[in-house]
């Protein structure tokens, strides 16, 4: 897989410096021990309170350095990608930030982290520092395992420990709250791909229709592979694993964590599925969805839950300095406000009417456009953003759904109704353009009662507002010659003209309108415009029914 980096051996130090340069002046600093010892710490730290130190291998950004700041971590120690920091690095961090009140180390339950942080703690105690360590083992993926992994639930401990430290409480108290929190956290992850380490060969162990449940944050295999399925079903499987440890009547905080590569759109769908599941009734506070503890570019997510009481709720909702921490929000219902209604008698609010021929024609056109969804998306994927088929089929489905409400016995009113439907349901520029087309055609037909002339009037308004003409590599290249031919009364000639116009777009290597205008000549050559193809197909259907 492809990655953005300079040299693999510098990627972590350069990334940490990037964080420092973008975090705001006076917020963060690093020790002058690069590159062997990589410690990010609060620039304003005065050692008057308990220091909270965490860390581990890089590749989990924004963890851990992204959570250094007031109210959370005092310092973060970074190793190389997926590699624990050394004993010397952890010890250096302790020396740098521990004052009279001491330091708490928060460690994920991996052997390397336990050993390196543990030995550093022992050496620090020998030097006179007061040090405690809390180990987080929140992963429930592997039942009955002696040493569960520490994953995204560790962030709850960072937040709770940081809150109590910021309040000036002593080390024993801070450590007690942290350890109690660590014992009440459960987490489970799910991914559709493994992660790819920059500078290393990548091989995805998952098939095209497979996902992995319970995999770790370093790309290690999950407990089981599952067939790719709707999000609601994936979430239901995860909820079934998480639910046995949840007590009825006890509120929880939920962290919805992006493991690195899930688009925000899909993360929002995941959050909706989780909160709509039976798990939702246990949730009082929500953190995310957001990338909080990632696994480089893993296309997956994890869910973490912690039992709440008044003290933990105060800790998790307290404001903090680090921007990477997503403020917790209370679980709530969706607020719905009534949309303004169209005044009676406006925008095509015409009574339904029946005409068998028009019903058959509209039905055939819509069914054809729906059948072409994948092909039109494929074409648009090469010259645009890949959604023409989905957009057109969405409009066609909306028309079919409202077919019984259309004034099919009155052509002008039918055109106006089609304009209304496509303007609200189709989306994108195509929906607006076609809405303009049908709306203007309806107005012209009401004035002149000539169908072909009315459609040409609609085309005139569409090209005026849209700005595209023949030769600009859009649907107009098929629509304009087809309507010109239709004006002579020859439906077959119109279909032939539309097909010829769509075919001509294959040789147009420069688009002057639409998304294709951003595409280079090499990518446009030989590919027909999907909008023109859709128009040609529609006229073909009309000709077949004439």
Verbal overview:
Strand 5, helix 3 and strand 6 form a beta-alpha-beta unit. This protein is α/β, with parallel strands linked by helices and 546 residues long. The mean pLDDT is 91. It is elongated and about 100 Å long. The longest helix has 21 residues.
Features:
seven-stranded mixed sheet, 13 strands, 546 residues, six-stranded mixed sheet, elongated
Overall mean confidence score, pLDDT: 91
Q: Which structural class matches the secondary elements?
A: alpha/beta
Main beta sheet, described? 7 strands, mixed
> How much β-strand is present in the residues?
5-15%
Tally of separate helices: 18
Low-confidence stretches: none
Strand order of the largest sheet: 9-8-7-12-10-11-13
**Global outline:** elongated
**Distance between the terminal alpha carbons, to the nearest Å?**
53 Å
* Total strands: 13
Query: What is the radius of gyration computed over CA atoms, rounded to a whole number of angstroms?
Result: 31 Å
Describe the secondary structure blueprint for this structure.
Layout (H helix, E strand, L loop, with lengths): L10 H12 L5 E3 L7 E5 L8 E8 L16 E7 L5 H11 L5 E6 L2 H16 L4 E6 L17 H13 L4 H12 L2 E7 L18 E4 L10 E4 L3 H12 L9 E7 L5 H13 L6 E8 L9 E8 L2 H8 L11 E2 L25 H16 L1 H11 L4 H14 L9 H15 L2 H21 L2 H16 L9 H11 L4 H14 L16 H4 L5 H16 L1
Parallel strand pairs: 3-4, 3-5, 5-6, 10-11
Antiparallel strand pairs: 1-2, 2-4, 7-8, 7-12, 8-9, 10-12, 11-13
GO molecular function: ATP binding; glycerone kinase activity; phosphoenolpyruvate-glycerone phosphotransferase activity
InterPro entries: DhaK_dom (IPR004006), DhaL_dom (IPR004007), DhaL_dom_sf (IPR036117), Dihydroxyacetone_Kinase (IPR050861)
Pfam families: Dak1, Dak2
